[in-house]
Amino acid sequence: MADTDLPPLLILLPGLDGTGRMFEPFLSALEDFDARVVRYPAALVSYPACIHFVRTHLPKDRPFLLLGESFSGPVALALAAERPEGLVALVLCGSFARNPRPGLSWLAGLLGLLPARRLPMWLLRFLLLGRWATTPLMDLARAMGAEASPVAMRARLQAVMGVDHTPLLAHIQAPTLALVATRDRLVPRAATTWLRAHLPNLDIVRLDGPHWLLQARPEAAAKAIRDFLARLPRG
Fold first, then answer.
1. In whole angstroms, what separates CA 188 from the centre of its chain?
2. Which domains, ranges and CATH numbers included, belong to the chain?
3. Contact status, residue 52 vs residue 76, Cβ threshold 8 Å
């Protein structure tokens, strides 16, 4: 049984790379939060496999928050729909309940034909950071790229194109916050609109920044989460 006298633990679920390496700036900005990063082994590429893996890593002895970044949003949503004991709140960052680019679903079958190569840094910079691409963040992205499996990332992208967790949203009771980047070049505004339509009580905070919001605006994101928790009813 969870000890409700303990402060909630923030469980961080990573983006497409699965390494959790890109959480480093955000972890430094958390200050008063205890946090745990879940890292996906390269063999975990499907949503059911990732959901099962994270389920085994949820704390049993203290309350917790789930934060799903980008790829991991559907993982966090599925687990929240199960209403696990101790779940205090859910946070989505740059994420979605279903394929955020449904018009590109026809590409899913072609992904398996692509060579297993790492994304070039210039493309990663354009898509994920834009004008927030500082030298430290690009160095961190290179370190992440050296750890991440290109094959796993390609397979996870295929999983994104096929996911639709909309039916699960009606089962979510935990307060939910969506952190939305105003300059996101990967996940369009329509993804948040879809979430709001099926989660009427969704709390949305928009921050000026790129898709990698936790990396480019870590202090602002941490503050938004603290403010969100402060708005929740006690107990």
1. 15
2. 9-231 (3.40.50.1820)
3. no
pLDDT in tens, 3-40: 566 778 999 999 999 999 999 999 999 988 899 999 99
pLDDT band at 104 (very low <50, low <70, confident <90, very high): low
Q: Cβ(50)–Cβ(41) under 8 Å?
A: no
Tokens of 68: 């799903």
In whole angstroms, what is the distance from residue 126 CA to residue 136 CA?
16
Q: Which residues, including other chains, have CB under 8 Å from residue 158's CB and lie 6 or more apart?
A: 45, 108, 111, 112
- Cβ atoms of 70 and 93 within 8 Å: the answer is yes
Helix (H) / strand (E) element for 49: namely helix 47-55
Q: Is 91 in a helix, a strand, or coil?
A: strand
